[in-house]
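Homework help board

Subject: predicted structure for assignment chain

Our instructor gave us this sequence and asked us to write out the predicted structure in token form, then describe one feature. I got the tokens but I'm not sure how to describe them. Can anyone check?
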Amino acid sequence: MSIFTGSAVALITPFHDGAVDYKSLTNLVELQIASGTDAIVALGTTGEAATLTSDEREEVIRFVVERVGNRIPVIVGTGSNNTEDAIQKSRFAEAVGADGLLIVTPFYNKTTQEGLLAHYSSIAEQVRLPIIMYNVPSRTGLNLLPETVNKLVRSCENIVGIKEASGNIEQIVKLAALCPECDIYSGNDDHVVPILSIGGKGVISTVANIIPEVMHLMCKAYFDGDTEEAKRLQLALLPLQQAAFCEVNPIPIKTMMGLLKLCDPEVRLPLVKPSLEHFELMEATLRANDML
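My token output:
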């Protein structure tokens, strides 16, 4: 069974004066739910999980789960390049009421495809929650191949899907053909409709932080059979998508959220403020879309 169908926001973690800003986090969660977002993903790449302390991570997970209150699914990023660490994070998310797990492939030390089989299988054996694997080679230096995904989905009943951010449409098409049982979610905001067209279940979206209703409606239009409207929204999204990734995520999306007064644009080192050129691009793009 799918954890969700449609648009899930890869929620940012707002900061103020160096600390997690729970007032803004409350407002962002409520905005997403009111705008029709189909699920919330906390502590993914966009959520800057890598710069949170262990205590902060646990508090953010508790807070988001409790605030959402079972209104929509909450999926928690629990990946690690240390399998035991990923297991412990996953157990915690399960214990506090998360609905699913998003688990990125190991990074830095990386592994082989056999290592990926062992890594994900070991995690799946230790939790009951459904797992969405996360393939993002541009960040991890490791590509989760379709054949490996197929083996994992067929051998582990709670491994149900993949967030595909490889940008390799040929590979994603091969996965869809090889393993139709696997729920495929676009990890790139500019690939949503193409992935839906080969049977994908939706998107885990960065841009949904500022246009949650549009991302939800794009997926809904496609599933309702209005492919022309879905295509129109996908193409209209391009300037915002390009602005949101003009620098390393989540620098641009937080900058735009700051301009929109949704939260402070604060990021944690090693992330820094965008260049003036990119700031002006983001501001101009928001104005061109009648958002400022």
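Reply (TA_rk): Your tokens look well-formed. For the description, you could write something like this. The longest strand covers residues 159-164. That's the kind of observation they're looking for.
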